[in-house]
Each structure stands twice: as C-alpha cells, then as structure tokens.
Specification:
The structure is a single chain. By secondary structure, the chain is of the alpha/beta class. The chain has a domain of 73 residues. The chain contains 3 helices and 4 strands; from the N terminus they run E-E-H-H-H-E-E. A two-stranded parallel ribbon has the order 1-3. The relative contact order is 0.20.
C-alpha cells in the first residue's frame, strides 16, 4: 500500500453564519486540505489556486492521479475563519493568503486546548472539526 499523510491547517467557521461557513470552506480548499490532497486524488490543484502554481503536464496528472491507497489527515489545531476577517479563538496559526475569506489564525488559545471558541471560552475541544467532537 502507498499512502500519504497530511497535516494541513484546518479552518472552521467562526460562527454559524453562512458567510463564515463559506470562508472556512474556501480556506480549507485553497490553503489546507484541498491544496495538499487534491493533486494526489484528482491529479490537479483546486481550480481556485491553479493560476498561482506551476501547472502539471497531462503526463504528470496521470502519473499522480489516484495512485495512493489511503490518505491520512492529522488535525492538531485549527483556526476560525470569518467572512470579514478577524477570526478569533484560533491557535494562532499563520495567516492565510489574500482572498481566502478572512481566515487569519486568530489569537492564541488557552495554552492547552489548541484554541477556544469564537466567544472567548476555554476551548474545551473547540479545536475539533464537526463530527470529531467525541474523538
């Protein structure tokens, strides 16, 4: 078996607003999970970032597309993404590129949780994406 492990910066919505959900998804596709995984699974970078990357030749696309047997994704922290920027409660990760929907890393968390919720609470597992709450 051949696999690939990735540890991208994960963005989660800074609130339940649709625009924050979109900002989070955009950040994940453009700078995180999509950027590191798409080429190996689909044979090319996400469309939104192709212009800023060296293009794959058709031969390279066929060579890498779907050649891995499994994908491992390590998520150790994250950042809040908000449509207007200023995502708070993240783990202090690096800012995303311009136009990523306002994902900015936010201030450091409480020192042990990997970042708190946008309301400034203690974190309490707030660094886990939806569906990973029981992990």
């Amino acid at each position: 078996s051949v696999g690939f492990g990735s540890g991208p910066q994960f963005s989660r919505p800074g609130s339940d607003k649709d625009e924050d959900k979109t900002a989070s998804e955009t950040s994940n596709v453009n700078t995180g999970i999509g950027l590191t995984i798409d080429a190996l699974v689909f044979g090319d970078y996400p469309e939104a970032v192709r212009a800023s990357k060296a293009p794959f030749t058709d031969e390279e696309k066929e060579l890498i597309k779907g050649r891995i047997d499994f994908v491992g994704i390590n998520i150790y922290g994250g950042q809040n993404a908000t449509a207007g920027g200023g995502g708070g409660g993240g783990d202090g990760g690096p800012p995303g590129p311009p136009g990523d929907g306002g994902s900015d890393g936010g201030p450091p968390g409480d020192g042990g949780s990997g970042g708190g919720p946008p309301d400034g609470g203690s974190g309490g597992g707030g660094n886990k994406p939806d569906g990973f709450g029981g992990v």
